[in-house]
Predict the 3D structure of the following.
Amino acid sequence: MTYDPNNIFARILRGEIPCNKVYEDDFTLAFHDISPQAPVHILVIPKGQYTSLDDFAANASEPEAAALLRACAKVAEIAGVTGTGWRLLGNVGADGGQEVPHLHFHVFGGRHLGRMVAKPS
Ligand code: AMP
């Protein structure tokens, strides 16, 4: 998939759309999800242009990869859920339910999160 430079997270990275920032470093930005599904719901994204985790795993540098993973745990710590537990979720592609075509991880916490994957209805 070709990277769409006008996707919503690309626009946030360029400062064209505001976000509620939680954390930032040279390679990574984290901000509150606009439609939170749990008391803590934060998105962690690489600053580089990667459509998905498939793309990132194939093409990102080691420093970018390390920074993204470390940022997820850092965000959980900032949100105060390190002790109580939290969930890291990455949706990839159509069956994964990925809506925004810029790699992002969801950090959820602040309540018991239930089943890992919803049962089919
Ligand atoms: P996904 O379904 O994994 O692609 O998740 C996309 C997430 O981005 C959803 O949870 C949306 O609520 C969230 N989202 C969409 N637009 C914004 C925005 N402008 N600021 C923060 N979160 C957003």
Observations:
- The mean pLDDT is 96.
- The two ends are 30 Å apart (CA to CA).
